[in-house]
């Protein structure tokens, strides 16, 4: 966002120092393409981080939900520890973290 503001500041310069409209357009196009590329890279990194690791499956895992095992090894593992468990008992609903 700092770069976008810099382009805006170029437009506020005195007329003799101000860039041509074509140059401003080129700068804005470059910034837009750069931000799209960055967001695509971020998406790919997040997508790959969430994909299960099929190469190193632990077949001896006796977890209640083995499909969730791969989440324990990444940044989502911290969030998984704070899952709210709701159990229905004879006295009503029981809530546990």
Automatic annotation (TrEMBL):
Keywords: Kinase, Transferase. One of its GO terms (molecular function) is protein kinase activity. It comes from the Eukaryota. This is Lemur tyrosine kinase 2. It comes from Mustela putorius furo (European domestic ferret). The lineage of its organism: Eukaryota, Metazoa, Chordata, Craniata, Vertebrata.
